[in-house]
Specification:
The chain is an alpha+beta fold. The chain folds into two domains: 233 residues, DNA methylase specificity domains (Adenine-n6-DNA-methyltransferase TaqI, Chain A, domain 2, Alpha-Beta Complex); 222 residues, DNA methylase specificity domains (Adenine-n6-DNA-methyltransferase TaqI, Chain A, domain 2). A four-stranded antiparallel beta sheet has the order 2-11-8-9. A four-stranded mixed beta sheet has the order 6-3-10-7. Strand 16 and strand 17 form a beta hairpin. Helix 1 crosses helix 5. The two termini are 18 Å apart. About 1% of the residues have low confidence.
Length: 485
């Protein structure tokens, strides 16, 4: 249950007579209603208020919910002396006493904003109609129509015509009616009229139907509400923290899984599977053979890895390596429509490469020469890495379909049977840890240039362990996705 739902439930119980017990000795809503009507008639006879057209009886169809037998359904217009204030652009009375006045922009739920209080002249007659006294309930006619607050100050102030003033004929607990308006507003039971701009007209507020308990019960209801709402606010603070935790938890869990995997803590090391050093040496032999066969170029030897470069601890059976030591890497073809010639072929760019995989919805084509086709043909198991944009975003090309790539992508072809998905997960972890960002070049727009890619260290486990790591990751990550949903 959300905090707003909890608050609404407290108020619903209150307004339906379920929050506190009914006590016969406190009287009934009918008795209080009659007292109010007697006071109203006295004021009419003394010509202090005008006699209004009687409101129709409340029908069964109009009653929104059940209430205790000791309560009574009434109209707001039967319980309160009701006025609206003076229009700011009124031309009829520009003379009179200068007084401060409240507008809807000053009135919020049970509070007032006095930072911008305006003034205008009020005649004696207008002052009588528009002045607010301590204990009046003020209700917005327009804007957030129905928004209400109790005037709890000794200072008298006036109101503008978009504010209703409700003053009870007979003593009631005004906060009971404030909470009633709050409940009605937030449960859609208080609707204004109008299509573009909603407004709670005089007639509409007169005809708002409210449940009336005895005065004593009103006071006990308000006391119980004000005991419980601070608990709901405390619950709201805890709920917000929990929501923040829940929002972050799937991503944090995913990151932790990858961190454990790449640090060699997700699966156990098995002596029979060999070591990263043994795999590394096998790859060096394969590289030398490919160089001798002129299938790959001989590259400048890389510097030894120093202790200061190592980002975290790994198992003793693993080895720190760089990309050029365990495979080949190149950026794709630089396209130029004005000079490109050859066969029109499909190619991938950064808009096709996502962490979830390769997206083939928008595959472009360009002319590739026979030499370009040989050089930039994608092979199954190649790792594609975004050079710019979301630098380092990676996916494995796992298809035998004819496809090429352009220069916004690095293509890494691993040697020695290395599992490309293991390195795909390395890149995701490094992206989250900002290792890729720190290695990239550029101040405002980052690029993972080839030299930067070659400088990054990766932990190399033996082949069998790579396979087990990937299998365990792919078993656990769907749980994170389910939590996110």
């Amino acid at each position: 249950m959300t905090p707003e739902q909890l608050k609404a439930s407290i108020l619903q119980y209150a307004i339906q007579g379920k929050l506190v017990e009914q006590r016969p000795e406190e009287g009934t809503g009918e008795e209080l209603y009659q007292q109010i009507q007697a006071e109203r008639q006295r004021l009419i006879q003394e010509k202090k208020i005008k006699k209004e057209k009687p409101l129709a009886e409340i029908s069964e169809d109009e009653i929104p919910f059940d209430i205790p037998e000791s309560w009574k359904w009434c109209y707001i217009g039967e319980l309160f002396l009701h006025n609206t204030g003076k229009a700011q652009n009124s031309t009829g009375s520009q003379n009179g006493t200068i007084r401060k006045f409240i507008t809807t922009s000053n009135l919020y739920w049970d509070e007032f904003d006095f930072t911008k209080v305006k003034e205008m002249p009020f005649t004696d007659k207008e002052l009588e109609r528009c002045t607010v006294q301590k204990g009046d309930l003020l209700v917005c006619e327009g804007g957030d129509c129905g928004r209400s607050a109790v005037w709890k100050y000794d200072e008298e102030v006036c109101i503008q015509n978009h504010v209703h003033r409700l003053r009870p004929y007979q003593p009631v607990d005004i906060y009971y009616f404030y909470y009633l308006f709050y409940f009605y507003k937030n449960t859609g039971k208080l609707r204004g009229r109008g299509v573009a701009i909603q407004g709670l007209s005089n007639e509409a507020i007169h005809r708002v139907i409210v449940p009336l308990p005895s005065f004593a019960e009103q006071k006990r209801i308000v006391a119980k509400i004000e005991e419980l709402l601070p608990l709901a606010d405390r619950y709201a603070a805890s709920y917000e923290k929990l929501e923040q935790f829940n929002a972050k938890f799937p991503e944090s869990m995913r990151k932790s899984i990858l961190q454990y995997a790449i640090q060699g803590k997700l699966v156990e090391q098995r002596a029979g599977e060999g070591t990263g050093e043994e795999l590394y040496q096998q790859i060096q032999v394969e590289k030398q053979r490919l160089i001798q066969e002129k299938k790959i170029k001989k590259e400048k030897p890389l510097a030894e890895i120093s202790e200061d470069e190592i980002p975290f601890d790994i198992p003793k059976s693993w080895k720190w390596v760089r990309i050029p030591e365990i495979g080949t890497s190149s950026l794709g073809k630089t396209l130029n429509k004005s000079i490109d010639a050859g066969k029109e072929v499909p190619y991938l760019c950064s808009i096709n490469v996502y962490w979830e995989g390769i997206n083939l919805d928008q595959v472009k084509t360009a002319k590739f020469s026979a030499l370009d086709m040989e050089k930039y043909l994608l092979q199954r198991g190649s790792l594609l890495i975004c050079e710019g944009g979301d630098v380092g975003r990676s996916a494995v090309w796992d298809s035998d379909t004819e496809m090429y790539y352009q220069n916004a992508l690095h293509c890494v072809r691993f040697l020695g049977g290395i599992n490309p998905y293991y390195f795909r997960y390395c890149f995701e972890l490094y992206k989250g840890n900002k290792i890729l960002e720190n290695a990239s070049k550029g101040m405002t727009i980052k690029h993972l240039v080839q030299g930067s890619l070659y400088s990054i260290l990766f932990p190399l486990p033996p082949l069998a362990e790579q396979k087990r790591i990937v299998a365990k990751i792919e078993e656990l990550l769907p749980l994170c996705d389910r939590l996110r949903k």
